[in-house]
Amino acid sequence: MSQPDTSSNCSFSSVDELMRTLQLAVHIPTFVLGLLLNVLAIRGFGTILKKRWPDYAATSIYMINLAVFDLLLVLSLPFKVALSQVWPPFPSLCTLVECLYFVSMYGSVFTICFISLDRFLAIQYPLLVSHLRSPRKIFGICCAIWVLVWAGSIPIYSFHRKVEKYTCFHNMSDGTWSTKVFLPIEVFGFLLPMGIMGFCSCRSIYILLGRRDHTQDWVQQRACIWTIAASLAVFVVSFLPVHLGLLLQFLVRNGVIVECRTRQSISLFLQLSMCFSNINCCLDVFCYYFVIKEFRMDVMAHRPSRVQLVLQDSTLTRG
């Protein structure tokens, strides 16, 4: 999504050339590891879902949904690398790859947001929300996320409208950077989910800290606190630079920022942030590992207390 080369005095060829090399270095190992690890994660949570239904259904369904979105992003990476370096053979292929990429990214954002909200409600109101966390309702929420992100991808079909020469993820049309397209993506695609996640994570940590002297499961709850804090930090580090870069590029494309060197720096920053944010599809696997480990420990110990079930079915997830 770099700045088009509209001025003979301000070239972005050096930035794009650098990113072509860097993308290969980052995306090839990300693709290999992400493909393997996310397939294993889906298989692992699928097995848990069958054997431990319905005790761990809520977390398993959420985590499978997140892994599918990550896998979708992984599968889009080879096409993203290839089509960002050459003119697309036909426009529909470029549109499809861009749709897959952004659907997977924002699908992950919304899934993480609902996981965080679900965890907070389970910690704050364990008795009141137990009937709201049925497998059918969780599955319905995941289906709604898919409908929402695909409906939100409609503006992608006009990304390159009236642009004769372009490569995928570059040279977007002016309409792409209009206020009516950009603001909903920025607000509803990132700021609102980040606000919900930040509130839920902070409240969850506060509640768990308040139970320190009133629970026998403090060791597990302490691990939960660190996981919540780390998940929030990873989410912010992964997605905040991307949306900050989109905001700066929005200002460039609307004539607010016109200085050539600044525009080049913004283009590099945006492409770098998008490139490294894709590594999250591999980092999520560490969260999957700890969830599966907790499940197995609980089964072996035969200690399915109410507190443990609430914590294990609503914690140790990314975000």
Automatic annotation (TrEMBL):
<keyword id="KW-0807">Transducer</keyword>
<dbReference type="GO" id="GO:0045453">
    <property type="term" value="P:bone resorption"/>
</dbReference>
<feature type="transmembrane region" description="Helical">
    <location>
        <begin position="268"/>
        <end position="291"/>
    </location>
</feature>
<feature type="transmembrane region" description="Helical">
    <location>
        <begin position="223"/>
        <end position="248"/>
    </location>
</feature>
<keyword id="KW-0325">Glycoprotein</keyword>
<feature type="domain" description="G-protein coupled receptors family 1 profile">
    <location>
        <begin position="37"/>
        <end position="288"/>
    </location>
</feature>
<feature type="transmembrane region" description="Helical">
    <location>
        <begin position="138"/>
        <end position="157"/>
    </location>
</feature>
<keyword id="KW-0472">Membrane</keyword>
<dbReference type="GO" id="GO:0007200">
    <property type="term" value="P:phospholipase C-activating G protein-coupled receptor signaling pathway"/>
</dbReference>
<keyword id="KW-0675">Receptor</keyword>
<protein>
    <submittedName>
        <fullName>G protein-coupled receptor 55</fullName>
    </submittedName>
</protein>
<keyword id="KW-0297">G-protein coupled receptor</keyword>
<dbReference type="InterPro" id="IPR000276">
    <property type="entry name" value="GPCR_Rhodpsn"/>
</dbReference>
<feature type="transmembrane region" description="Helical">
    <location>
        <begin position="181"/>
        <end position="202"/>
    </location>
</feature>
<keyword id="KW-1003">Cell membrane</keyword>
<keyword id="KW-1133">Transmembrane helix</keyword>
<dbReference type="GO" id="GO:0004949">
    <property type="term" value="F:cannabinoid receptor activity"/>
</dbReference>
<dbReference type="Pfam" id="PF00001">
    <property type="entry name" value="7tm_1"/>
</dbReference>
<feature type="transmembrane region" description="Helical">
    <location>
        <begin position="24"/>
        <end position="45"/>
    </location>
</feature>
<keyword id="KW-0812">Transmembrane</keyword>
<dbReference type="GO" id="GO:0005886">
    <property type="term" value="C:plasma membrane"/>
</dbReference>
<feature type="transmembrane region" description="Helical">
    <location>
        <begin position="99"/>
        <end position="117"/>
    </location>
</feature>
<comment type="similarity">
    <text>Belongs to the G-protein coupled receptor 1 family.</text>
</comment>
<dbReference type="GO" id="GO:0070374">
    <property type="term" value="P:positive regulation of ERK1 and ERK2 cascade"/>
</dbReference>
<dbReference type="GO" id="GO:0035025">
    <property type="term" value="P:positive regulation of Rho protein signal transduction"/>
</dbReference>
<dbReference type="InterPro" id="IPR017452">
    <property type="entry name" value="GPCR_Rhodpsn_7TM"/>
</dbReference>
<feature type="transmembrane region" description="Helical">
    <location>
        <begin position="57"/>
        <end position="79"/>
    </location>
</feature>
<dbReference type="GO" id="GO:0045671">
    <property type="term" value="P:negative regulation of osteoclast differentiation"/>
</dbReference>
